Amino acid sequence: MNPYLEGLRGIQPEIVMTITALAALVFDLLLKGRESRRVGYLTLTGLALTSWFLLGQWSEAAPRTVFGMVAVDQFGNFFKLFTVAALAMVVLLVMHDHREREHGVGEYYFLLLGASLGIFFMVSTNNLLLMVLGFELLSLASYSLAGFHKGDRKSAEAAMKYVIFGGLATGIMLYGISLLYGLTGTIDLAKMGASDGGLVAQLAQSPVPVGIAMVLILAGFAYKVSVAPFHFWTPDVYEGAPTPVTTFLAVGSKAAGFGVMLRFLGAIFLRPGVADSVAAYGDRIGLLLAILAAITMTLGNFAALRQSSLKRMLAYSSIAHAGYVLIGVSCMTEAGFSAALYYLAAYYFMNLGAFGFLLYFEGVNGNDSVDSLKGMGFKAPLISIVMVAFLVSLTGLPPTVGFYGKYLLFVEGVNQGLYWLVVVAALNSVVSLFYYLRVAKALFLAKPADREAAPAPVLTGFVTAFGVATVGLGIYITPLRAWAERSLDVLRG
Amino acid sequence: MQDQILTWITFLPLLGMGLILLIPKTSLNLIKGVSLAATFVPMVLSTWLYFGGFKHLTPGDFDQARMAGDILASQFVQRVPWIDSIGVEYYVGVDGLSIALVWLTTILLFIGVIASFGMEKAGKAYYALLLMLEVGISGVFVSLDLFLFYVFWEIMLLPMYFLIGIWGGPRREYAAIKFFLYTLAGSVLMLIAIVALRLDSGTFSIPKLTELAAQGKLLGANLPAAGELLGMKFTTWVFWFLFVGFAIKVPVFPFHTWLPDAHVEAPTPISVILAGILLKLGGYGMLRACFPFAPSAFHEFAYVLAILGVISIVYGAFVALGQTDFKKMVAYSSVSHMGYVLLGMGAFTVWGMEGAVLQMFNHGTSSAALFLIVGVIYDRAHHRDLNAFGGMSQIMPRYWALTTLGFFAALGLPGLAGFVSEALTLIGAYQAGDARFRTLVFISLLGVVFTAAFLLWAMQRVFLGQKNPKYLDFEEINFRELVCQAPLLFLCILFGILPAYLLDWMHPSVQNLLAILGGKA
Questions:
Q1: For a 10 Å CB count at each end of chain A, is N or C smaller?
Q2: Do A427 and B184 touch (CB under 8 A)?
Q3: Collapsing DSSP states into helix, strand and coil, what is residue A406?
Q4: Which residues of A59-76 are buried (b: 16+ CB within 10 A; e: fewer)?
Q5: Hey, which residues does B232 pair with through a beta bridge?
Q6: Cβ contact (<8 Å) for A426 and B189?
Q7: pLDDT one-digit tens code per residue, A20-56
Q8: Cα gap B114→B102, rounded to integer Å
Q9: CB–CB of A407 and B195 under 8 A?
Q10: What residues of chain A lie within 8 A of the CB of B154, using their CB?
């Protein structure tokens, strides 16, 4: 076949996504602000089509690279499917957010789709240049999304903070990448760690320059997934941004950040036939990440203890969860990466559900404080009971998907001898129980509230479906785990 | 049916819970009926299991079972793969250690449901949570797969949190979260130990792990730093991680502080279940999933365990002496009584070990009866101040008679159940043949004296002396309250006279356990 056509076949999902984004923008103009829900349906249709192509690629056996840049493989596919699923939920949230009628909905969907397109490219390439491009596309779209409520001071502040922090982090990362390029003479990750690659020669001379480059690059990734000490933007941006955007940042964008991190580390250090000196160097980076993991989860959990806003609490909790995922990354083994992937998938279900709950009660109460939930569990029983399931899963108790995720992380941690990290993580889940239970306590342990909660059947339906998945996938574990395992085929070469 | 009987016992309450969720909350009588049925049937099944189905094994049977790969010689085994990729099975069975506790669980939950009928606030959610609690408890007792064991262990926490937190007393929120945090702190440590065991051995099967440990093949060199970690043997780390998780549940001094709070705030039926069975999970867990996995560490620290047990006995009784709250007094008496369990296990003699297992059962009946007794008077007076009553024996003579029986069972009067188990543990500890253990026995006798003191003193303050004119119109104990208490007190008398009806069931498995742990059986 014509290699050009073959290449286009490889990026079918991306093409569909781009068309959808443009169509959403135009369609909204044609509708002139009336019936804006239709744009949402259009976006959902586009996403369905995208995932159809993605699933088609999923069953293809051999990973390949098209246009010399885009890697079509299961690993990228995992994160793309993940992003599409997250985005679809976010779109549904946007359609049921009472505040969104006032704003230009076409741009909203356009920006969300643009951000997702960035994710698509950044997770499916071994080429540092394309990785940075995707990274920037995601970031720029996210900045605008964070400030989408133009009249809202908090939203504007969030966007500003995000831009400044993001600009700095990207700059640092680019500097690291340019160093790495200078040291190794290539921007192809696959070639760096090979036994005849530039990295081996550099490490033989001195590990310091490589170390500086690595730390700078990892700092850029750490910012995206809000790992301490690059997490400072997270609470403010999450709180100020519209709730559906927060959901997207907390789930889609964070997972993508981990996707890039895993591919970067995996392609250099875990490739079959990697030189010994490079693999040994990877272990040292693993130790650095383990220390960051411990700091991140402890900091996130202790900061979450003091929050009175549910949204901010979930922001800090998402920092803590980044710390948990980092356990798997820091093992620097295939099993560790697979555990991290599984945990991200678990995180998707429980966190999207929790954000759906948040959005519902923002509509009911007009604010996001935990206190305003007092006694509401008796007024909206279904969604509140389901929320308890999410809280249980976020804490990591069985029989939920979150427990199994944590279990897999612990297994690989113990297997790699990171006992201290596993103990820190275990104690952290006790701390996290305290603030998660505050929500359950407000809902059910107070006297029934004297206000009524307006029913929102569709939103409640989504959230309940996620609750069923959170518990169901905690009992029937095999499919999700098989999926995470399969995604790592690309590492086996 | 017989192969699946344990599954039915465990999951029938879950079925009941599902049904209750479908019933509208206004049909309270239907909800009560379903809860009653969903606890009654498992009770009938487990009673049959205890008296009919369960075979008394001979040493020959144990040898055979060992050859067949089940060192515990469990009966009514059901084994189905659950999570293939990591080798988790749905693997259940009972042996002499667990059978009595399964029976006790089903009895106490049934009584708990009847006792709940007196609570006005108890509705749909309450009964649903109560049934979910039963699933967790029964599940722990029948699990033979460590992963499954842990899952059931954690399933209990949430219903208990809500049962105390929603239907409890004035400080219920504090008590509920304290209970949850303490237990979780212990169980996350357990999880780490479980992960280590699994990675080392490649199996979650409790019999298999027990066998490997007995052969000295567990926690060998399959893990990084498996030899020593921070100056402590790896086996010892695993032992303590598991032990602390279970000790919090027992609760052993110094992990006991959640118990008085939880008991005082919990509604009566929940206190009954908490004291009656939840505490036994700790003791049972040690015998099932702590000592057998690290026998060397157990022998090394047996004396420390015995000391902790004695501290619990004496300290618990002493603190109970100082209480003015009736329920808090009974709660501390639980700390004291559960101390015997640890002392008996630490002594590591046949009598000590049997006494410990027997004490778990007997405390289950007597402490449950005591909490019901407290509930009766609290429902009438709406306070529990021991000093504010007086002369109740003349106002409620039948209630007084039952209370006397319950108190005597708790303080270990010969002829009642508590005496047998306490005597066994103390004799067992004495037999350990060691001056150190003998000293402990003498110290723990102090606890016996304190126990008699606080119970008799409470009896005197509440029931004897001048009638308090405020309480003259109290009605006598009613039929529902009687129905709850009578079976428990009956069991106290029955097993006081015929302890063989418990001991014969336990004896083969206890012998087997001692042999596995490599002792003086």
A1: N
A2: no
A3: helix
A4: eeeebebbeebbbbbbbb
A5: B229
A6: yes
A7: 999 988 888 888 767 778 888 999 999 999 999 998 8
A8: 19
A9: yes
A10: 397-398, 403
